[in-house]
Amino acid sequence: MNRIPANTRVRIVYAYLTPKGWIYGVMSQDGLSGGEVYEWQLIYSQDPLTLPPTPTPQSPPVEIRSLTASPNPAERGASVVIAWDVLNASSITLVRFLASAEDAVVLGDGLAPQGEMTYSLPSDWSGPVTFELHVWDWNSNQTIQDVQVEIICPVTPLLDGCPFTQESVDAVYQPFEQGFMVQWNDTITLHYDDGTYTTVPLADLAGVSEPTTTPPAGLYLPSGYLGLAWNASPGVSDRLGWATGPEASYESLTEQHSDYVLFTLPGGRIVQLEERAAATWEYRN
After folding, report:
1. From 50's CA, which of 59, 64, 264, 271 has a CA 20 to 30 Å away?
2. Taking the complete model, does pTM exceed 0.85, yes or no?
């Protein structure tokens, strides 16, 4: 190592006491020269010594060599095997998603670099199921890769998206001036032209009398259960108006989805009922 020139800024590395006084081992700021000096040879500076930065060791990059799900596609409720093969990882986590991050479930944490996990798909879910592999390297950098399992739908859906259930039910339909009514099973739904609807169980119509007023020419007075629902609550008849045609019995194809219902009207038109938020409806075709 080179000798230290005069007036060089140094840092003290070690020190020891001799009969002649303290001796200090010093090294130049650039680390290229050093030696031992007596204390009287040092001039202490008030300015902090700037040391060269310590280089941060870089780990090799993470490599997700494979992430698979089998079988894919799969039926609802089936078991799928998620397998992965990762290099240079300090930590590995497997997460399952359905519709959004709100329903995320951590399936495994601190996983081995190579492994597999068996997972049973939800029996009440009709959309794809996503599995994400979260991998961190030794410098805490994160890499994410996913695989999506498609669900085999057991029925032919009315629209896109596999329903939880699909069935054909006996129904009665009647159009009105400002909407329509549908009766199926033990329920009647009243659909208004403003996009809202109400549901009336048939049991709630006990004791309600049928309407007896005379409709204008060319219009109809509803009868039976539809007439009871029309006459049950103040304002219903005003909102719907008179019937514009007689009631019609038909087979309605109904589907239950995660947060809405689809059903068909006579002629095949599809109606969607929103269930999660406000009670609204719309035509879908």
Report:
1. 59
2. no
Tokens of 93: 């986590």
Distance, in Å, from the CA atom of 162 to the CA atom of 122, rounded to the nearest integer, reads: 13
| String of DSSP letters for 185-244 | TTEEEEEETTSBEEEEEGGGGTTPPPP-PPPPTT-B---HHHHHHHHHSTTHHHHH-SBS
Nearest to 220 by CA among 238, 188, 242, 196: 242
Amino acid at 46: Q
Question: What is the length of the chain?
Answer: 285
Which tokens belong to 28? Answer: 């130049």
Q: Peptide bond preceding 154: is omega within 30 degrees of 0, i.e. cis?
A: no
Q: How far apart are CA 60 and CA 52, in angstroms?
A: 24
DSSP assignment, residue 178? T
DSSP label of 245: S
Q: CA 32, CA 24: separation in Å to the nearest integer?
A: 17
Q: What amino acid occupies position 94?
A: L
Which residues on neighbouring strands pair with residue 143, listed in sequence order? 135
Distance CA 186, CA 201 (A): 6
Angle, CA of 204, 209 and 211, to the nearest 5° = 120
- Mean local confidence (pLDDT), 125-138: 91
CA dist., res. 244 & res. 239, Å (int): 14
Q: Is the peptide bond before 73 cis (omega within 30 degrees of 0)?
A: yes
DSSP letter (8 states) at residue 19: T
Q: What separation in angstroms does the CA of 107 have from each of 120, 124, 209? A: 11, 19, 58
**Each residue's pLDDT tens digit, 154-206:** 899 999 888 888 999 999 999 999 999 999 889 999 999 999 999 999 999 99
Beta-bridged to residue 253, according to DSSP, are 168
**3-class DSSP state for residue 39?**
helix
The tokens 């592999």 sit on which residue? 133
Structure tokens of 64?
């997700």
